From TrEMBL:
InterPro entries: Cystatin_dom, Cystatin_sf, Prot_inh_cystat_CS, Prot_inh_stefin. This is Leukocyte cysteine proteinase inhibitor 1. It comes from Stylophora pistillata (Smooth cauliflower coral). Residues 3-100 form the Cystatin domain. SUPFAM superfamilies: Cystatin/monellin (SSF54403). GO terms for cellular component: cytosol.
């Protein structure tokens, strides 16, 4: 995972590791969005090295429905805890994977 310290990496195709991270936060994402998703497939991601790792992940949740997730994974010595920080809903495949905050705003 080629991430820049301080900044997000370029967008890359999702890996098995990213899918596992996304799977771990699915219930949190559904709770934040207030609905269940038909599917939950990681499409692409960007990563950022911080005290741990931040991920921005584009996830397909239906035929032409997408969400963007902002996920934080703590350092191994802190338990490698995975937490969903924010979700943006109602997106399409063409929406760019830009950084956003917990309120869903850029």
């Amino acid at each position: 995972m080629a991430a820049l310290v301080g900044g997000f990496s370029k967008e890359m195709k999702a890996t098995e590791e990213v899918q596992k991270i996304v799977d771990e936060v699915r219930s949190q994402a559904e709770a934040m969005a207030g609905k269940s998703f038909k599917e939950f497939k990681a499409i692409s991601y960007r990563s950022q090295v911080v005290q741990g790792m931040n991920y921005l992940v584009k996830v397909q949740v239906g035929d032409s429905s997408y969400v963007h997730l902002r996920i934080h994974q703590s350092l191994p010595q802190d338990g490698s805890k995975i937490e969903l920080i924010a979700i943006r809903t109602g997106l399409s495949e063409d929406d760019s994977l830009d950084d956003f905050k917990a309120d869903g705003k850029n």
